[in-house]
Structures are given as C-alpha cells and as structure tokens.
C-alpha cells in the first residue's frame, strides 16, 4: 500500500458463495430461459428461484425464527462488546439467522470466556483461531 493510503477495515462480503450440482437437463432448461431473455444469466435464475421458495415458506420461517429466538440479519461482536460481557460476569448464547461476525482483534481466549454457545444459520465470519477455540460450542 502507498504510504498515504490506509485500509480502515476490510469490507465484509454481502453474500456467500455456494456451489450446487445440477443435472444436465435442468441446466439445459436454465440455459434456454437465459437464451430466451427470461433471465440475464444462470445466477439470476437461481437467485430468483431461491427467493420464490423463501417467499413461499415465509410464514413457516417467521414462526421458526420467533420460536428459536434467532437474531435476524447481521450481528457483529467487537472486542469491546465481549470485554463488556466479561466485565459483567456474563456469557453469550449467540443465535443468528444471517451473518454473525466476530471482530478480528478478538482473541481465542476472550471468545471462549464470553461465548457459551453459537448457533448460526447462514454464515459465521471469525478468525480461524476463534473458530477453532469455539468449535465445541458451535451448533
């Protein structure tokens, strides 16, 4: 980096990459719809199909989120957040549907002292060392 340019914080991705396997006939159908202009590309088709299924099951998902008391969306835990939990003599039971992120300056020791359980439906962003320290607490 140039001397006058400083990276403040790496930008978090707003999506997670997944890989799927499709049969050749299904893939051909998707390619035909893309070729005919119904979708801009394969990814557009797949995202639309997923959103349609999520909309179709919206009531069941909403009820399940309420029943399991999940935080919905993005939940970030900074070192200061975890130090405050530690100072209060408490522990966290983290339950997130979406993205849970633990700051890169959180040590594995601090994570183990303050996070009693971690249940993430979606993605967890944390350092490899913190993930390793919490592996027995991740559901």
From TrEMBL:
It comes from Microvirga tunisiensis. InterPro entries: Arc_rbn_hlx_hlx (IPR013321), RHH_8 (IPR041088), Ribbon_hlx_hlx (IPR010985). This is CopG family transcriptional regulator. PANTHER family: BLL4998 PROTEIN (PTHR36215:SF1). SUPFAM superfamilies: Ribbon-helix-helix. GO terms for biological process: regulation of DNA-templated transcription. Gene3D superfamilies: Met repressor-like (1.10.1220.10).
